[in-house]
Amino acid sequence: MSEPFVPKILVLATEKCAYPGADAVGKAHQEYPSNVYILRVLSPVLFPEDFYFKAYAEGIDGILIAACGSDCPYHGAYDRLAARIDQLTSQMSAGGLGYERIRLTAICTVCIKAFLKEVALLSDHLQRLGPVDRKLAEELRLQSVGRLQASARFPRPEAAMQGGMR
Amino acid sequence: MSDQEKKQQEHEKDLAEFECGEPGRDEEAHVQRQIEIAKGPMETLHLKPEIAHVHDGVTPQLKVGVYICRCGGNISDVVDVEKVAETARLIPGVCVAKVHTFVCSDPGQHLISDDILQENLDRVVVASCSPFLHEQTFRGAVSRGGMNPYLYEHVNIREQASWAHKHDPAGATTKAIRMVAAAVGKLRLAQPLDKIKLPNHRRALVIGGGIAGLKAAADLAGRGIKVLLVEIADQLGGHLNERGRIYPSEHDASEFVSALVTQVRASSNIEILLSSKVSAVSGFIGNFKIVIESLRSDGSTSKMDETVGAIIMATGYRPYIPQNGEFLYKAEPCVLTLPEFIQHMQSLSGDAKQLTYCGQAIRNIGFLHCVGSRQIDGIHQPSPNGALNTYCSRTCCTTILQQALAVRKRFPHTGVFDFNQDIRTYGRGEENYYTQASRQGVVFFRYNGDEPPRVEAATGSRGKDGVLRIIVKDALTWGEELEIGVDMLVLGTGMIPGQITGLIEAMKLAVGEDGFLQEVHPKLRPVELAVNGILVAGTAQAPMNVHETLAAAGAAAAKAAAMFATEEVELNPYVAEVDLSRCSGEARCVTQCDYEGALKMVQVEVDGVMVDRAEVNAGLCVGCGACVAVCPHRAIDLNGWRIDQFEAMIEGLAAEIPHPECSSELVSIQ
After folding, report:
1. Size of interface A-B (CB pairs under 8 A)
2. Is there a domain that residue A166 lies in?
3. Cis ω on the peptide bond leading into residue B248 (within 30° of 0)?
4. How many CB atoms lie within 10 A of CB B574?
5. N or C: chain A end with fewer CB closer than 10 Å?
6. pLDDT tens figures, B82-111
7. Taking 80 as the threshold, does the pLDDT of residue A77 lie above it?
């Protein structure tokens, strides 16, 4: 008998809102599954689309972007993030990865219930979807990197070419 | 030779081909060398050394120390910390993994700094509580060991593991191991960073001219610091001007206020702006840019721009005003709030023999506690903004008893009835008011919070012992329903948060569920707000009495003064940085930046040709990273939070967990 599927969930939690929100869940001794991994970020607007595909290719099954929403301390960052995630979900959907593997939400510093609800929702979706096809995710990552690089007007300076794309 | 030393030697051997020298011992030379390597093909570029942590693909020599905290059982009761340490030692690059009961203690911190020196560690991970509590602590510890503080990584296995997965110890342990692996992965790509230093404007803004603001301003001025005191009203002193006497000393409140005002006005260090408000705030500690709008006497407003280094929020409270005819307030003229009653008592002449109100003798008076405080959902009506004041206002009980006692002493013919849920005369000398009031014949009734007394206007024969009837289910007489006639009812109204929504939004301040400003941590960082350089003093934070307010204001002033002890302020170096070896002048990053001057294109010479390249102004960059995602060449990244570091963390989270069978001896102390 095969072991039950335990999805790996990645939470990208903003330092000003969602990360302390996740702390508040622990402080209140509320529980959520231990397969939920939380990374502290200043703002998820940092990540290009290929980053998400990289995560799926590496072994992550679902990503919760827990941002600040309207409380975002950086001008324009949340709108840019939302636009990018919009694009990303269509690419995930078109690429056959399933758009339900990603959720964008706002979690405040005391939003314990919202945090638990979002994690539960994503877990439910992932149970239905099963594990990510890692090869497919890697393919989508390469496509995404390719698209970004192809859009460049100027080539990268020669010196850096030897190092390759990190 | 111990196993550990052997392992270390192997490490050195493995990495010898990549590195010569010891980067951990001499960061500057290491950075300089990396600059040289990166400079290679582009020598004509003028790299500024402070922004030149160019990534050259060379893996630095890695000697990571991992410290796992038991937190006195908070962590180790759930997470198998020994197993975490044992497994951590198998992660490539880790040469020390130790468990300690309290890593944040002095011995715990010494353990880290000593290991850095003895074991030549060049990276440190501590797995403990939330980074908001101790990231700074451990950055300090590694600095004392001679390591760059940004080669430190914090792993949160308390709030986000042991406390959140109490019933899944195995899962929590696995998670802790993976999180440590992720942190080591991030550190593998970490570069030493220097704090950004900016001039510190030695001048404080105090918002609010009540006693908190006055005291904070006076204390700062006394330390030789320039203060800008902004008050929205046309006079200083705030609510305390109208509060009779200060308990428990029974000093005259207005005398106290005027003494403080005189002191503030006499100081050459304090500039006072009345009828003024702060309309915009930007910047950061040491460099806040503020806009102040002042109302001129002719009705027009003037605007001025100022720069300050610290801000003290002394914005105070608003007295609760009963609403919608609550307890017949405004419906019956003889129903007053506590501040109104204090004013009325002040207005009576000193030789009056009878308590009167609007020409009527007051034979019996009632005091009702907890009006607008300790509200219960479903019992009390929320304010128009939806707020339910569930907190205790803390000052009303003693103030009511002070006034009740004053009535009994001055007007012995007036009967006093006190309706309370319980009496909270908690401070030094305050319980005395309760004892005295009982001795002086104040009659106490106790109601349950979910069954507050009802107040009715009494007419005809019912009104013979008072114009109001108070119907109370008295818990002291086993829930008997009693009716008491009074000629006057005083509502013990409490404090509600000040109307400072604009300031809260402008400064991104945290507000508690009660609507008052929330400090970072009540014990570790009192009077500090979450934004560095902004402090809170007095009732802007919570209901406080006079001496608590003054203590908080003094603390805020002391912390502000400490911030001004240095010529420069130091900021985390989390700013974008351009890798000129990758930048092709695409300029896409610039279109993403909303911060004027933070990121722009400049002309540089490459191979004798002038070309456009992106340039970051570290003083203006806020570190949001919006520029990073769009670069087709990944030529711009965020220091301390680079994308490749996040990718390494994900690899760490996703990797198979090494099996500890082949582990060497576990080092565990305490």
Report:
1. 175
2. no
3. yes
4. 20
5. N
6. 999 999 999 999 999 999 999 999 999 999
7. yes
